[in-house]
Amino acid sequence: MSRWAGERTGRERLIFILHVGYGFVAAGFVLAALASFALVPESAGVHAWTAGAVGTMTLAVMSRASLGHTGRELTATAATQMIYGAVFIAALARIWADLDPSCSTLLLHVAAFCWAAGFLGLGAVYARILAGPRVMR
Asked: What are phi and psi of 72, to 5 degrees?
């Protein structure tokens, strides 16, 4: 992860979100290690990998590829950044629900709402882009 030069990606959200997603891979390994000592539930690491890494990276690649293949500028709009934020919050809430069962019901609702908002938001924002003509520059 250190070779990805993440410190240089903060201004370009289409790249930065890949680093965020990859960070969930590392977090998943840390949580899995802690689970091997019965310090946290095993599901916390699994949710870091699935909701965090897979969910975030899936949105990142789909949004970037949609823009690139349709000839649009490779910049994350405010709407795209909100989509990323929703899935990031969903992943954190899902992991937190595993770590703190006392508020898991609320956190599961937050995670479900944000997850749906992120992926439905991607569909709403990018449907027009994907259904429209390619932009010629």
From this structure: -90, 165
Look up residue 99 and give its amino acid. L
Q: Give tens-digit pLDDT for 72-97.
A: 999 999 999 999 999 999 999 999 99
Structure tokens at 43: 């599901």
Query: Per-residue pLDDT tens for 31-48?
Result: 999 999 999 999 999 999
Task: For residues 40 and 99, give the distance between their C-alpha atoms in angstroms, rounded to a whole number.
Answer: 6
Least Cα distance to 35 among 53, 24, 50, 47 occurs for 47
DSSP result, 38-101:
TSS-HHHHHHIIIIIIIHHHHHHHHHHHHHHHTT--S---HHHHHHHHHHHHHHHHHHHHHH-G
Question: Tokens 């960070």 — which residue?
Answer: 23
